[in-house]
Amino acid sequence: MASESFTPVSMPSALRFDLLARCSTTKARAANLTLPHGPVQLPLFMPVATQASLKGLTPEQLEATGCRLCLNNTYHLGLKPGQEVLDKIGGAHKLQGWKHNILTDSGGFQMVSLLKLAQITEQGVRFLSPHDGTPMLLTPEHSINLQNTIGSDIIMQLDDVLVTTSPDHARMREAMLRSVRWLDRCIAAHANPTTQNLFCIIQGGLDLEMRAECCREMVARDTPGIAIGGLSGGEAKADYCRVVNTCTSLLPEMKPRYVMGIGYPEDLVVSVALGADMFDCVWPTRTARFGNAITKYGMLNMRHAKYASDFGPVEEGCGCVCCRKGEGGLNVTRAFVHHLAAKETVGAHLLTMHNVWYQLELMRNVRKAILEDRYPEFLKQFFKDLHAGDKSMYPDWAVEALKTVGVDLME
Amino acid sequence: MAPNTESHGQQPGNMSFETLKSNIQHTTTARLGKLGISGRKDIETPNFFSIGSRGVVPHLTPDVISAHAQFSGIHMALEDFIERATTGTPPVMNVPGDSPLHTFTALPSHFTTLLAPRRTPAVSAPTGNSNTAISIFTSTGFQVLPNKAYTTYITKLSPDLAVGLADVPYGTVPGTKRIAKMGDRTETWLTELLAAKPERTAIFAPILPIDSNAQSEYLNHLDDIADRIHGLAFYDPNTLPDIPATTALTRLPRLSLSEPRSPSQILRQIALGMDIFTIPFINSATDAGIALDFSFPSPKTKSESTAPLPLGTDMWAATHSTSLLPLSESCTCYACTAHHRAYIQHLLSAKEMLGWALLQIHNHAMLSAFFSAIRTSIAAGTFEEDSDVFARVWESEMPEKTGQGPRVRGYHYKSEGPGEGKKNKAAWGNLGVGVDGGEKDADGKVLEGGLVPTEGRGSWRGRGLRRRLRVYREMHSRTSF
């Protein structure tokens, strides 16, 4: 078993983590994370530029939202443009003209979520190529090798992902232990530990003991950062919160904690209160393409006829390029977004700009509240805005989860 | 005032046009001009307006236009805004402020808006025009647009420039009877529009795409009212030489609504004295994944080849996949300075929307540079020779399209009825179910998947993978019959 044969070695790191403040009530933290392509401020939301492009926005426009760390997907870049091309061009930063940080996943999640006939063995993930059906194998070594070529600032280990709701306890434990063994192989295969930061991924489903065991194993391997994985797969929100809460209590304070696949605003603010620092999700950009605008009062579907003659901004007071009035702002109205939604891609681009800005601005405000030690008040105001002050509408899971860290939304 | 400059004082509609250099004796000759509209950037002519769709330049958000576009105006079609006219007032009519069209479309203030009734190119209508109205195609279907309504729209929306309603039959060749009506109707409609005295809009009188004899009465009428109109809009550039060569008409700016298929057709029209263009091939090249690459009169960098050079590069070609070159070596646009061919090839191949946005920025920049060089050439008095050089150096037609375009929307074209093939094929097959799961290139060769470094054959040994692969392939070849 991995734990018995393992001797801890200190891993080189290409990041600096400066903890600036801790909330005096909840487990929320504010920190600065300095990565090879510049500093980012935690807590942080990372938008997802799956195929080396953030859904129609130029890198310049993405920069204008304040984004300094975005995601690329290893699986997609491995297919297009492919490792050979990435190698020749000199990595993903050069490919997409992005001067700031990139995080790549391991490719393992897409194997399981997108591919039929994917089969996980000790060696790696076996699957049939979506191009020609050729059997292929993604091993921890391949994944790291590909991520080394991509040159992302944060790279993720290949893990054995299982839906958290799987009832098969034995299989879940196997997946958790295999993820630990694969981490060792990833560490061994990692060619650029001084320029790229490898994060481990805590697995173990919804079983808190298994999560705790995984935390101990992974933490001992001393990766520069730590991710909590396998969540956001349809589990009950209360279960999700318990897992995050359990893990963050067992993780070292001086390392960034990344919860994978989280993006709804209420999930973000609660997860921060539970001690998580980094998040990513395709939802804000995907929902923009469906005509949905995220606002602090909830989501608005701009395709609805009621917006056809609404000449207000997408969100009053929003500072994004799309909503802002005056210098550098477009003063785009809901009516114009409605006019374009589902008809011209520019409509989607405008909402993508707005939604990414919303998510980043939310986290900027979260950070400010933590630094000023008023995060509990921030949480109360957030849920009040979101549900128009109607406490009966507050989600139970959020109320319960926040109670465990000393915030009572109902008081 | 500088010699050789002919200004026409205060023209109504907040618009002025002065021809800076032209041969006054010849009405049909390349000329330089300056179009001034209060509140907008002056437009040096010859020049072009971008063709909008639903009030935006396809693929480009207004902030990108603001940061990277050198063109001065956008052609907007009224039919893109009034689908709700059948059930009530179109929203654009309720926009508060002085320039509702500008405000609604979030267009940066220094850009000029040109309103025309129909898109360019327009979808042909199943029903004809009547004595009082034309047929238009909105995003929800065909509608009738009476001239009275069009006049109201112009008065309220206050575009900077507007083209009067013209009785133009799209998609059909008009018979003798119809031709006789076209001039009369257009004249009546223009008279009605001018009677409404739109305050903030300069009116361009449409010139019909028919023989000048057939519209001579209308043309003479235009000469009579030349001080009340602010420009001429040509549906067919060949009618330009037949316009009465009066001072009053000659001093008006000329807009081409024809659909030039190539730069050389633009040059020909400029030689006839055309001032402003709308150019559909910019948007169609972008959608086809073609990066325009030509300059006037010859390439900036010396070329060895004596064969005519292509006017653009098909960015779908896999040969660009590792090229760090800009789309065009001489180009200084955002796409060429901040990105390279490899990225654009990747974006097209991955069907990422940014690919078309970057091509759109570049293709517009190419045309801006083209027109700028043309103006320099006219100023230097070498336009005719330079045009000859251009014709020798460059190919006369746009390159063939090979790749797929972005998704086509209903109001962009009219379907030919049931059974029409899909414009784009599905991006992914259903692996393990269908036979044709593999993506193929143009020759039908199955493309190599490159996700993981392919293992050496040796490592497959003993795992039965080679056998399984063989079985899998056999299975495929069998089921494909």
Describe this structure in words.
The complex is a heterodimer of chains A (411) and B (481). Chain A is of the alpha/beta class and 411 residues long. Chain A has two domains: 16-281, Queuine tRNA-ribosyltransferase-like (TIM Barrel, Alpha-Beta Barrel), CATH 3.20.20; 289-372, no CATH class. Chain A is 41% helix and 16% strand. In chain A, helix 7 runs parallel beside helix 8 and helix 12 packs across helix 13 (345-371). Chain A is globular, with a radius of gyration of 21 Å. Residues 1-5 of chain A have low confidence and may be disordered. By secondary structure, chain B is α/β, with parallel strands linked by helices. Chain B folds into two domains: 32-278, Alpha-Beta Barrel (TIM Barrel), CATH 3.20.20.105; 291-405, no CATH class. Chain B contains 13 helices and 15 strands. In chain B, the strands form four sheets. In chain B, strands 4-5-6-9-10-11-12-13 form an eight-stranded parallel β-barrel. In chain B, helix 1 (62-68) links the parallel strand 4 (47-51) and strand 5. In chain B, helix 4 runs parallel beside helix 5.
Q: Name the shape of chain A in a single word.
A: globular
For the residues shown, what is the average pLDDT of chain B?
85
Extended strand count of chain B = 15
Q: Under the CATH scheme, which class of the largest domain in chain A?
A: Alpha Beta
Proportion in β-strands of chain A: 15-25%
Keywords (chain B): Cytoplasm, Metal-binding, tRNA processing, Zinc
Protein name (chain B): Queuine tRNA-ribosyltransferase accessory subunit 2
Domain tRNA-guanine(15) transglycosylase-like (chain B): 29-394
GO molecular function (chain B): metal ion binding; tRNA-guanosine(34) queuine transglycosylase activity
Topology of helices and strands:
The complex is a heterodimer of chains A (411) and B (481).
Chain A: H1 2-5, E1 16-22, E2 29-35, E3 38-42, E4 44-46, H2 59-64, E5 69-72, H3 74-89, H4 92-96, E6 101-104, H5 108-114, E7 119-120, E8 125-128, E9 135-138, H6 140-150, E10 154-156, H7 169-189, E11 197-202, H8 208-220, E12 225-228, H9 237-250, E13 257-259, H10 265-273, E14 278-280, H11 283-289, E15 292-295, E16 298-301, H12 334-340, H13 345-371, H14 375-386, H15 396-404
Parallel strand pairs in A: 4-14, 5-6, 6-10, 10-11, 11-12, 12-13, 13-14
Antiparallel strand pairs in A: 1-2, 2-3, 7-8, 8-9, 15-16
Chain B: E1 15-21, E2 32-37, E3 43-45, E4 47-51, H1 62-68, E5 73-77, H2 100-104, E6 112-116, E7 133-138, E8 141-146, H3 147-157, E9 161-163, H4 176-195, E10 202-207, H5 216-224, E11 231-234, H6 247-250, E12 254-256, H7 263-271, E13 276-278, H8 280-287, E14 290-292, E15 312-314, H9 334-338, H10 341-349, H11 353-379, H12 383-393, H13 465-479
Parallel strand pairs in B: 4-5, 4-13, 5-6, 6-9, 9-10, 10-11, 11-12, 12-13
Antiparallel strand pairs in B: 1-2, 2-3, 7-8, 14-15
Helix pairs in contact in B: 4-5, 7-12, 8-11, 10-11
